[in-house]
């Protein structure tokens, strides 16, 4: 990274120094476009500061495809652990050498005439274009019901969880069964902690099926190339990711199996009242939904194998290892000896600094592969911006290349028109 003197004007301003912002900087440099990157914290801080100690990739290493920085280790079908992921990302940071101002938040982005006005604590700059690469994961989501928990119960978000030892002795409630929640629940469970797992509508996926990683099968089928404009895919932007893990070489996460081993499961949390956590009576439905998705993905693979005459044995349909006798609707936290609650219900975006008419009624930017309706304004790094891998190491670089290519073309056209006007 380099930190140049702050100029008053740039051709492009990038907001956010994560993998999306760095990928944008990479392509801006290739196009010779002067730019600056503003990062509120530190470059790639989410990988370094918001992952637990036992964290590892959920997708195989070969899917690490940042621009001109593919995974080049000796275990493409393995799953890098936290320190290895950080080393991979640091290698990309060193290659890009982006002009980044860290610890510099953007407080306002507005457009006046043909230029954008970008405000920061270190000064205000103008730009002909702006790339918003701050993702949907800005603010840890904590429900208002958390305020009703007793002060004696430790509360943390998944972004702050590191290991079981940081929590006081006693039972732990994990609220949310997405990727992070399921893996953290497993981390606690393997450490011998009593875990109360609050489920939602998160789907699950097999790790291996018919002799291969499911991700490899899905790549062959073309699932990672399907765009958000395919029939029925738009809603994917708001879907919860499938839960599974790459831990210890990779395996399924089966909440039913955890229940057989002593983990307590509940439906979606409704609220907290008088020392009790209250739940919807939908645990059975949640588990069944996750299994339907699991079996549906495997059936898709079965169809692919049959169609192409592939020699791969082991066709199976998952049968529930455990079923709840009833759907529990409350948990007395004190009686259960609960000492900590981990909120694993995701994050919320922070677009408060953006004064541009680019959002729909849900607060999601209206765009087509990162190109918004406001000329010169782009977004990058969002889940399902274009494909399944858009918000991840797999395809964020491809989207950045597209966005910067569009940006470069727009700049060239605008400057050509300006020259023509000046020449009469």
From TrEMBL:
Matching Pfam families: Pyr_redox_3
Record organism: Shinella lacus
Entries under InterPro entries matching the protein: Auxin_biosynth/cation_transpt, CHP04046_FMN-dependent, FAD/NAD-bd_sf
Domain of life where this protein originates: Bacteria
Keywords associated with the record: Oxidoreductase
Protein name: MSMEG_0569 family flavin-dependent oxidoreductase
Keyword Cytoplasm applies: no
Keyword Oxidoreductase: yes
PANTHER family: FLAVIN-BINDING MONOOXYGENASE-LIKE PROTEIN (AFU_ORTHOLOGUE AFUA_4G09220), FLAVIN-CONTAINING MONOOXYGENASE
């Amino acid at each position: 990274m380099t930190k140049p003197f702050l100029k008053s004007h740039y051709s492009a301003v990038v907001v956010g120094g994560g993998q999306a912002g760095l990928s944008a900087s990479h392509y801006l440099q290739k196009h010779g476009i002067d730019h600056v990157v503003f990062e509120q914290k530190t470059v790639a801080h989410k990988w370094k500061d918001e992952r637990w100690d036992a964290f590892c990739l959920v997708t195989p290493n070969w899917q690490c495809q940042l621009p001109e920085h593919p995974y080049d280790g000796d275990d493409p079908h393995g799953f890098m652990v936290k320190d290895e992921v950080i080393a991979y990302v640091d290698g990309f940071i060193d290659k890009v050498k982006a002009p980044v101002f860290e610890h510099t938040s953007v407080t306002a982005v507005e457009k006046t005439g043909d230029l954008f006005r970008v405000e920061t604590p270190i000064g205000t700059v103008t730009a002909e274009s702006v790339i918003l690469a701050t993702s949907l994961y800005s603010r840890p989501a904590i429900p208002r019901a958390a305020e009703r928990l007793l002060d004696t119960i430790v509360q943390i978000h998944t972004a702050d969880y590191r290991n079981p030892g940081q929590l006081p002795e006693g039972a732990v409630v994990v609220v949310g069964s997405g990727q992070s929640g399921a893996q953290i629940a497993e981390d606690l469970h393997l450490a011998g902690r009593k875990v109360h797992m609050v489920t939602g509508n998160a789907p699950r996926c097999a790790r291996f099926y018919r002799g291969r990683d499911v991700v490899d099968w899905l790549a062959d089928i073309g699932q990672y190339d399907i765009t958000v404009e395919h029939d029925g895919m738009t809603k994917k932007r708001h879907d919860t990711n499938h839960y599974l893990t790459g831990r210890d070489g990779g395996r399924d996460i089966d909440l039913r199996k955890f229940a057989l081993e002593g983990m307590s499961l509940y439906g979606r949390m409704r609220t907290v009242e008088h020392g009790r956590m209250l739940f919807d009576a939908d645990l059975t439905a949640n588990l069944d939904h996750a299994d339907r998705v699991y079996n549906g993905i495997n059936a898709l693979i079965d169809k692919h194998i049959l169609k192409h005459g592939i020699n791969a044995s082991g066709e199976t349909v998952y049968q529930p290892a455990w079923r709840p006798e009833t759907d529990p609707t409350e948990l007395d936290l004190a009686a259960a000896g609960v000492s900590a609650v981990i909120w694993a219900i995701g994050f919320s975006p922070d677009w408060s600094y953006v004064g541009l008419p680019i959002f729909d009624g849900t607060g999601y930017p209206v765009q087509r592969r990162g190109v918004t309706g406001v000329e010169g304004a782009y977004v990058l790094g969002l889940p399902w911006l274009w494909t399944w891998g858009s918000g991840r190491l797999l395809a964020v670089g491809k989207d950045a290349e597209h966005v910067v290519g569009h940006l470069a073309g727009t700049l060239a056209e605008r400057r050509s028109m300006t020259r023509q006007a000046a020449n009469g």
